[in-house]
Amino acid sequence: MSKTLALILLFFAMCAYAQKVSQERVTTLLSDLAADSMRGREIGTPENDSAAVYIAREFQRNQLDFCVGTSYLVPFEYKGKVVYNVCGIRKGKSEDFLAFTAHFDHIGVSNKGADTVYNGADDNASGVTAVIGLADYFRNRELDFSQMYIAFNGEEKGMKGSKAIADVPELQRNFGKVRALFNFEMIATVSQFGANTMFMTGDEFSDLDEMLNASAANGLKIHMDPYAKQQLFYRSDNVVFVKKKIIAHSFSTVDMNTATHYHQLSDDVGVVDFANLTSLINNTGATLEKLDSRTFKPTYSERVNFN
Q1: If we measure between CA atoms, which residue out of 105, 106, 101 comes closest to residue 87?
Q2: How far is residue 78 CA from its own chain's centroid?
Q3: Alpha-carbon gap, residue 58 to 162, rounded angstroms
Q4: What are the angstrom distances between the C-alpha of 146 and each of 191, 267, 291?
Q5: pTM tops 0.90
Q6: For residues 19 and 195, which has the higher predicted lDDT (pLDDT)?
Q7: What region does 197 belong to: left with phi over 0, alpha with psi -120 to 50, or beta?
Q8: Which of 47, 57, 158, 182 has fewest C-beta within 10 Å?
Q9: What whole-number distance in Å separates Cα of residue 89 and Cα of residue 97?
Q10: Higher confidence at residue 4 or residue 221?
Q11: What residues contact residue 46 under an 8 Å CB cut-off, 6+ apart?
């Protein structure tokens, strides 16, 4: 084989490995997590454990390193049971991290009616799909930043999982190097601002949204929080890391004024716009790929409450 032909084949091989995340892949991930067999992924149930193992296998598929010990599963105790967060890391050129997070638990099952499973497709299989999707996206790309991928457990019971993992001693050094944490919360629908858009909770507290929009790829747009009065910034897992003075915001598409599926049996795959979710994952990845660890340094304003 000639050197020229070998280089051509290598080029096409690299292109194949660096492809975008497909809509088929996104559909499979979310549908698996929101399946009836997962029985609503309530913390403390066997199905919640199964969801954690499923996510861990996807982290393994993406060849992430362990955050702690010899497993992606990071245990903590909940009502006398051992339950799990899921955590993986990938080293970049810089020792500084970007963290991608989402909670994977939901509210379980109902004992009334024919449809008994609270599938939690939007809340929050969509967010976990984004976290795994970004791990897919960066698997064969060299990102400047190192990356931390975390699926939190127990958000629905008072952010139990994020509080537990935030206190793991072995992770404090890495947490101290997190430049920004992106918490994905209910991104299955097209936002009120249109396709390929999300809003960032607590936008008034940092310049993260402005910095992302300055580097936005393929028309991605991060909007201001339209529900500032609802204090969503302080009501999701990101706030646990805000208290550690890490730049940490939640990103969402849900219309809090009109969504009828929130914590309802109707939150199943039928509410999901898979094309838009796929675009959000790929365009978020393309945006983050452009960030330079030497210059990307978002800061909090004096208005944020760290307590």
Answers
A1: 101
A2: 22
A3: 20
A4: 29, 34, 12
A5: yes
A6: 195
A7: beta
A8: 158
A9: 9
A10: 221
A11: none
